[in-house]
């Protein structure tokens, strides 16, 4: 077992890939979380950056993506990324790319932060560098979803809305769902301003209980405010009826483990991104 977490299993080192220890053996579905080792990119994008972000060489990104796809035995025209605009739009993906592929900079679902599919061999992919990524799987009526849950989408209740839409599409029940949380900025490090706590006072989806004040250890002794992105999204998913034991949180902070995952807050601008992917297998 890899040393990062009891919940996350390293399944490849070149390229660096992880799976949920708890749910990796679920029949009919495959998921994976990419790390940042084993790629071609340099600098803050070193080395397995999967994002066409404008500062990494696009040729490196294509090489990195292809290396991952080859390892996973999927084709580029099966893989769907999303634009990720920090909103609550959910898209249903029903067909493979007709004229392009995930090796193209233009190949993404626009204006979307969550995707759902009932089609086998369509790979849903989301990217992040501190935001939380969530993969959902309906074990009763095979359906998968992926969510990009930064603080803005979390405040908009994207996790709740995606679960409800997924259940509507599948006709299933919440007890049949499983959720996997990627590494992200954890409550140990995800510092926010008091204005976000003020928003939570009136928010339907995020509550003050999801924030914690800590005393600064410096001489100033200032109280610092931290947001628990994990708990906020866990509670959203639980509110739909999904059992707690069906939610698997990696419990890995990207800011603490920045050697293995990309972190905007640790490395600053022009950093790369890791990915989470999920797809249904042919029955």
Automatic annotation (TrEMBL):
Organism: candidate division CSSED10-310 bacterium
NCBIfam families, sorted: peptidoglycan editing factor PgeF
Lineage: Bacteria, Bacteria division CSSED10-310
Recorded family membership: Belongs to the purine nucleoside phosphorylase YfiH/LACC1 family.
InterPro entries for the chain: Cu_polyphenol_OxRdtase, Cu_polyphenol_OxRdtase_sf, Cytotoxic_necrot_fac-like_cat
Catalyzed reaction equations: adenosine + H2O + H(+) = inosine + NH4(+); inosine + phosphate = alpha-D-ribose 1-phosphate + hypoxanthine; adenosine + phosphate = alpha-D-ribose 1-phosphate + adenine; S-methyl-5'-thioadenosine + phosphate = 5-(methylsulfanyl)-alpha-D-ribose 1-phosphate + adenine
Name of the protein in its database record: Purine nucleoside phosphorylase
Keyword entries, A-Z: Hydrolase, Metal-binding, Transferase, Zinc
Pfam families linked: Cu-oxidase_4
């Amino acid at each position: 077992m890899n040393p990062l977490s009891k919940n996350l299993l390293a399944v490849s080192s070149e390229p660096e890939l992880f799976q949920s220890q708890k749910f990796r053996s679920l029949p009919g579905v495959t998921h994976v979380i990419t790390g940042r080792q084993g790629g071609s990119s340099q600098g803050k994008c070193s080395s397995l950056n999967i994002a066409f972000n404008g500062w990494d060489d696009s040729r490196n990104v294509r090489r990195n993506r292809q290396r991952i796809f080859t390892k996973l035995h999927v084709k580029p025209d099966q893989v769907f990324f999303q634009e990720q605009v920090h909103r609550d739009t959910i898209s249903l993906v029903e067909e493979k790319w007709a004229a392009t592929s995930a090796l193209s900079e233009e190949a993404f679902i626009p204006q979307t932060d969550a995707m759902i599919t009932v089609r086998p061999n369509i790979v849903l992919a989301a990217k992040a560098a501190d935001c939380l990524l969530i993969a959902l799987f309906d074990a009763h009526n095979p359906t998968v979803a992926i969510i990009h849950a930064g603080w803005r989408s979390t405040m908009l209740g994207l996790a709740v809305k995606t679960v409800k839409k997924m259940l509507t599409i599948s006709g299933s029940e919440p007890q049949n769902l499983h959720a996997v949380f990627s590494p992200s900025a954890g409550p140990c490090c995800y510092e926010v301003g008091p204005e976000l706590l003020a928003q939570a006072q009136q928010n339907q989806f995020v509550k003050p209980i999801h924030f914690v004040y800590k005393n600064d250890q410096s001489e100033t002794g200032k109280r610092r405010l931290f947001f628990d992105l994990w708990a906020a999204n866990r509670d959203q998913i639980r509110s739909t009826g999904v059992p707690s034991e069906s939610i698997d949180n990696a419990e890995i902070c990207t800011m603490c483990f920045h050697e293995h995952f990309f972190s905007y807050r640790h490395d600053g601008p022009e950093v790369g991104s890791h990915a989470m992917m999920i797809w249904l297998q042919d029955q």
